[in-house]
Amino acid sequence: MIYIYDGTWDGFLTTVHHFYYDRLEVSNIESALSYQPNLIDEYRTIPPDKTKAQTVEQAILNKISYESLENIQKCFFSELQGREMWILNYIKLGFKLGGKIDCMLGDQTVLNVLIPARKVGLECHRMLGLLRFELLENNIYYARLQPDHNIITFISPHFKERFADQNWIIHDTRRNLASLYNTRKMLISYMDLANIPELHTNEIRFQDLWKNYYKHIAIKSRYNPKLQKNFLPKRYWKNLTEKQ
Amino acid sequence: MDLLEKLGILADAAKYDVSCSSSGGTRNNNKGVGNSFAAGICHTWADDGRCVSLLKILLSNECIYDCVYCVNRASNDIPRASFTADEIIDLTMNFYRRNYIEGLFLSSAVLKNPSHTMELMLEIVRRLRNEQAFFGYIHLKAIPGADQRLIHEAGMYVDRMSVNIELPSDKGLEVLAPQKPVKALLKPMQQISQGIAEHKEHPAFKRGGSGTNSAGLFTPSVQSDSSSFPESLPDADFSRRELAGRNSGKYFVPAGQSTQLIVGATPDRDLSILKLSEALYGKFSLKRVYYSAYVPTLSDPRLPAIIKPPLLREHRLYQADWLLRFYGFEADELLSKTNPDFDPQLDPKAFWALRNLHLFPLEVNKAEYEMLLRVPGIGVKSAQRIVAARRVNKLNFDNLKKMGIVLKRAGHFITCQGKTYESFSQNEHIVKEALTSAKLLPQGKKAVPGQMSLFSTLNETGLGENMSDLYLFSSPENTKEWLSYYTQPQDGRLLLSDIHL
């Protein structure tokens, strides 16, 4: 039996709930957004159910640990192929062992979740620094990103705290997902922002100042593009003001 | 002169200061803009591979001193410029709000005299905190010789302060910086470290009241009775000033102080540099000592005639510095009078381990954490993982490999459940070959010398907010609709239904 869910976190947790209550042999869990059906396998679509999802989330918190829930969540949002079964196997092991699982750092089942979670953590940390906002004419700061993993939920609270008195938008153009903040509340929504308003009249001036600063701060006799690329992989350059 | 040109000149003048860190801050955003991130955040990396975290500029490069090693020396023929306070504030705020930087690193050449310079710098940081309600990171250079009261007051507003020693010995300073006696450098460092220590002990500071501070150190605007402070005032500017002022009483250089030593401008050996760092960490509780490979910017018969900065030596010193701060090593264990310099081929830990082969191998499942840290190929993170993982299961080499331990190196120093690793040897030459830097890495992926970075993963996952509550699953149709989100009446209770999606 292959379970199909709607691709969301709640939808995925609902399939975990079904796995425990349906008592069927589940060979895979796949997102409706990406699965390729074949004639041999049997499929079942699981509709998302918030109550069931919350039951599973609570069970992970109570029977395993907060740390595990964090890692599972990060692994899920890594969007790596195969993550659903890695997480299911992790949860199965976690329900047997409890919080001890957080110490099993050399175990393959644990690492299958831990390594994607670390990748997401690294990209989140990087993006806290690399995100670049542009001021639009209606006083909204707009930032665009195309991260490897779906990290917008993890990084947005940082900017909510930091830029509490600014209107801003963080827009994942790869996933058409954006977080919006209007100095009071933050929301995350799927959205296709086709027409971004014009830049504020001051914007280009500050971008030029920043580019000029960036150019001058490097010491020429220490020029080291390899080291630079180690820290700052080229795939992130596209949205960096100083690299335009 | 326009701002663009000025920024170029004063960034050029500041770039030989290698300090870049924005870590250790504890400031939270209190109704303004900005906050500290404990681990620090790098915002970009320049073409030389160095991280850019703070807007690092000089207030001015018009210096009355003539230190031989310094680009900004009075007798050097370079363009000179000075920022106004408004210019620096404008740049800092606008860069910060676009997430270019973590904050400001403000230094300066000595204009007229040290106290005058310090006063100008103090005004800038005071205005950033009080007028702009800026809670981002500020690193300020203390100017040696400036009035103690100015340095003390600046400490109330900034996160980190530093005094650069630059030359690691009295002799070097005497020859290359005759106007900067070593005593004048150590005095403000001592003052700052005392200030930090007193501030930590004094209960009044912990509560954040400003009333108990000695008079004269504060501007009048700060000496308000904080208890009667109303939550919101019609005049936003006034309320902001009050808030940041009250806030500044809570802190004194919360992220600690740092300094910088230039490597290669004087004949000092690695041993004396490392001993100096050790003393600074011990005596003045410094957070960081930075090492800067001497970059020949000028020629002078008193300076060594080198063509390239000694980058590998700088790298080895950073590695050794890490060993002092995070691995429990002492300078005397790493180097000695007979071995006063590091081996360019070997990192300092390997260099030590080779001379102490008799202490190994260690049984991974039993060894003390402190000893695990001393094994080449095991870093702080790996050692912590080992200690956590062995509580649950006995570890074998496969587990270690999966946990990220470099067995090619560590394999010579450890056993797992009594077994040795396949390539194990205690022959000094074989071990040395395995530990030699260049050979260790596959072709094309050689270690790149440079300042190291401790990557810490993000802890803030936003679990506090319920994720499903934040998500909207039907999307706005057009730009006008999502823009309406920002034109809602700002009464503080915007609901999902208000957005008409």
Automatic annotation (TrEMBL), chain A:
All copies of the DUF4130 domain together span 82-242
InterPro entries per record: DNA_repair_put (IPR023875), DUF4130 (IPR025404)
This chain belongs to the protein called DUF4130 domain-containing protein
Q: Which organism is it from?
A: Ruminiclostridium hungatei
From which lineage does this chain's organism come?
Answer: Bacteria, Bacillati, Bacillota, Clostridia, Eubacteriales
UniProtKB/TrEMBL annotation, chain B:
CDD domains reported for this sequence? Radical_SAM (cd01335)
InterPro entries (UniProt xref):
Aldolase_TIM, DNA_rSAM_put, Endo/Exo/Phosphatase_dom_1, rSAM, rSAM_sf, RuvA_2-like
Q: What are the entry keywords?
A: Iron, Iron-sulfur, Metal-binding, S-adenosyl-L-methionine
Matching entries from SUPFAM superfamilies are given as: Radical SAM enzymes, RuvA domain 2-like
Q: What is this protein called?
A: Radical SAM superfamily protein
State the Gene Ontology terms under molecular function: catalytic activity; iron-sulfur cluster binding; metal ion binding
**Species whose genome carries this gene:** Ruminiclostridium hungatei
